[in-house]
Amino acid sequence: MEAAGRIRIDKWLWAARLFRTRTLAADAVELGRVRVNGERVKPAREARVGDRVDVLAGGLQLEYVIRALSAQRGPAPLARQLYEETADSRMRRDKRRETLRYAAEPARSIKGRPTKGEGRALRSVRRPASDGE
Fold first, then answer.
1. Would residue 60 count as lying in a domain?
2. d(CA 63, CA 36)
3. Tally of structural domains, the chain
4. pTM of the model
5. CATH number, residue 84
6. 2 has which bridge partners?
7. CA 33 to chain CA mean position, Å
């Protein structure tokens, strides 16, 4: 970890393990899914200690405060030292986890197009059977 230095925000997001690849981090920044101190930024913006980073991931707004800078992606325990998640963000994440645990979304279990038999079953649920069929 570096105490001071110039690190791009996309590289910091990758090093902090908030994104799997640096390309995904840069794309998220470009699409506006990552904001720094409430403002939309470009991937080349410098990350600074104390900046608040808002990440929109999977429909969930996560908030982090940058605690250290690093240009290298290391093990997860070291990556967690680069940031601190805010209490509100942690609470929202825990609430979402509980919701998904007890009330799973049925559409998440569907993979691809339904088979012919599944299509018939879906149509029979949507449309009541008439006497003529």
1. yes
2. 10
3. 1
4. 0.74
5. 3.10.290.10
6. 69
7. 9
